[in-house]
C-alpha cells in the first residue's frame, strides 16, 4: 500500500514538472517579439585575409657576435681603462700592457741593423779593392804573355840568320805556355773570389732584411700593446688585473659587437610543445614590428620557463639596444589568405557553430565550421561565404528560434 502511494506521488511530480515547462514555453512566445530592429544588432562580415595564431613570449636583446681579444705578446698589464659593463667605441683603449720589454727589443734590433749595415759597407769597399787587384793581376799576366810572344818573334828571326839556337826558342815557347796556363788559372780563381764577395754581400743584405722585418713586427707589437676595441660594443669581462703577467694569446677581453643583434626569448613551460625551431616570430619594438625565426631551444626548464634564441631578419635595426626588454609573438598557426571572421569568445576550433546570418530582411540560423582560432580572426572552413554578415550581439532572446524577421 505504501509503495503505491510513492508511485502515485512520483507520477504526480513528473506531470506537474511537465505542465510547468509547457506553460513556460507557451508563455515565452508571448514575451519574445516576432520581429527585431536590424539597427539593434552587432554583426561581423566574413571576408578573406590572414589568420594568425600566436603565443606570447618575452625576450632580451643580445649581441649576435661576441669578440675575444687575446694578448698580442708576453707582458704585464699596466692599466685597465674600461671595466666590464662599459660601452666603448671603435679604437677606444680598453687596457694597456707594459711596453718596456718591447721597446728594449726594438732598440737592440736597431743597433744590430746599424752594425750589419756598416759591415755591408766595409764588405762592398773590400770587394771593390779586391776587384781592382784581381783585374791588375790579370793585366800583368796578359802583358807578360804579350812580351814573351814578342820575344819569340824576335828569336825566330835570329834563328833564320843563325844568331840563336833552337833550344832558346823551345824555352820561350814553354814560358808562353806556362804563362797562358797561369793566366787561365788566375782568371778562374778571380771569378770564384768575385762570386764569394757577391755572396758575402747578399748574405749581409739578407740578414739586414730579416732584422728589418723583425723590427717592423716589434713596432707593430708595440702598437698592439694598447688593447683597443675592434668595434663599438660593451665590455663583458676582463681576464687579469693591473700588474699581472700574461703570455702570448692569453684571453684578455670579452666584449659584445653592437653591429648586429639577436634576441634571447623566454616562454611559459605549458607552451613548450608548440615552440619549434624555425617558427616565425614577430618582435614588438616600440611602434615597429621586426620579424625573425626561432633558433636553438634550450631543453631545460628554469623557473617554469623555456629559453630560446631568435635570429632577426634585420639584425642591425637602429632601434635595437643591448639588454633591451621586448615583447614577442611566436607564430604557431598561420593562413596567408583564408575565409575568415572576427574572433568572438564563443568560437571553438574544429567544431560546428550555430549563429544567425543576415539574409535580406531575415536572420537565418546557420551551421558553420571553424579552422584556426587566431588572435583576432578565425578561419572559416565551411558553412559561410564571403560577404555574409554574422550577428554576434543582440539575439539573446531568440536563441531557441531558427529564423527572425528583421525590421529596417
TrEMBL record:
GO CC annotations, alphabetized: cell envelope
Gene3D superfamilies recorded: 2.40.30.170, 2.40.420.20, 2.40.50.100, Helix hairpin bin
One family name in Pfam for this protein: BSH_CzcB
Broad class of where this protein is predominantly found: other
Organism for this UniProt entry: Mariniphaga sediminis
Lineage: Bacteria, Pseudomonadati, Bacteroidota, Bacteroidia, Marinilabiliales
Annotated protein name in UniProt: HlyD family efflux transporter periplasmic adaptor subunit
Keywords from the named record: Coiled coil
Residue ranges constituting the CzcB-like barrel-sandwich hybrid domain according to the UniProt record: 69-257
InterPro entries: BSH_CzcB-like, UPF0194_transport
Superkingdom of the source species: Bacteria
Coiled-coil ranges (or none): 169-228
Amino acid at each position: 500500500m505504501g509503495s503505491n502511494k510513492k508511485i502515485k506521488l512520483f507520477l504526480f511530480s513528473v506531470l506537474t514538472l511537465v505542465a510547468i515547462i509547457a506553460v513556460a514555453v507557451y508563455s515565452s512566445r508571448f514575451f519574445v517579439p516576432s520581429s527585431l530592429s536590424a539597427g539593434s544588432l552587432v554583426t561581423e562580415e566574413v571576408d578573406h585575409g590572414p589568420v594568425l595564431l600566436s603565443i606570447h613570449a618575452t625576450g632580451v636583446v643580445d649581441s649576435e657576435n661576441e669578440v675575444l681579444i687575446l694578448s698580442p705578446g708576453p707582458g704585464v698589464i699596466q692599466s685597465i681603462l674600461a671595466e666590464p659593463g662599459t660601452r666603448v667605441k671603435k679604437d677606444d683603449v680598453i687596457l694597456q700592457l707594459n711596453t718596456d720589454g718591447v721597446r728594449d727589443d726594438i732598440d737592440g734590433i736597431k743597433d744590430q741593423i746599424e752594425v750589419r749595415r756598416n759591415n755591408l759597407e766595409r764588405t762592398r769597399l773590400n770587394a771593390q779593392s779586391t776587384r781592382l787587384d784581381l783585374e791588375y793581376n790579370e793585366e800583368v799576366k796578359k802583358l807578360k804573355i804579350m812580351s814573351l810572344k814578342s820575344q819569340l818573334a824576335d828569336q825566330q828571326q835570329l834563328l833564320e840568320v843563325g844568331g840563336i839556337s833552337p833550344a832558346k826558342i823551345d824555352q820561350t815557347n814553354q814560358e808562353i805556355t806556362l804563362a797562358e796556363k797561369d793566366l787561365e788559372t788566375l782568371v778562374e780563381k778571380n771569378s770564384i773570389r768575385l762570386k764569394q764577395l757577391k755572396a758575402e754581400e747578399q748574405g749581409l743584405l739578407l740578414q739586414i732584411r730579416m732584422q728589418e722585418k723583425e723590427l717592423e713586427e716589434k713596432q707593430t707589437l708595440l702598437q698592439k700593446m694598447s688593447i683597443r676595441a675592434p668595434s663599438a660594443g660593451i665590455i663583458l669581462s676582463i681576464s687579469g688585473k693591473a700588474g699581472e703577467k700574461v703570455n702570448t694569446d692569453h684571453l684578455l677581453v670579452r666584449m659584445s659587437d653592437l653591429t648586429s643583434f639577436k634576441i634571447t626569448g623566454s616562454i611559459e613551460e605549458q607552451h613548450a610543445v608548440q615552440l619549434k625551431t624555425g617558427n616565425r616570430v614577430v618582435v614588438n619594438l616600440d611602434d615597429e614590428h621586426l620579424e625573425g625565426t626561432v633558433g636553438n631551444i634550450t631543453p631545460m626548464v628554469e623557473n617554469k620557463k623555456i629559453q630560446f634564441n631568435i635570429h632577426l631578419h634585420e639584425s642591425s635595426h637602429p632601434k635595437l639596444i643591448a639588454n633591451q626588454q621586448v615583447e614577442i609573438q611566436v607564430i604557431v598557426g598561420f593562413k596567408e589568405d583564408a575565409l575568415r571572421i572576427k574572433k568572438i569568445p564563443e568560437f571553438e576550433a574544429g567544431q560546428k557553430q550555430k549563429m544567425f546570418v543576415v539574409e535580406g530582411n531575415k536572420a537565418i540560423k546557420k551551421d558553420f565550421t571553424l579552422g584556426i582560432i587566431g588572435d583576432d580572426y578565425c578561419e572559416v572552413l565551411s558553412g559561410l561565404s564571403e560577404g555574409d554578415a554574422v550577428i554576434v550581439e543582440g539575439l539573446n532572446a531568440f536563441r531557441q528560434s531558427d529564423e527572425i524577421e528583421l525590421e529596417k
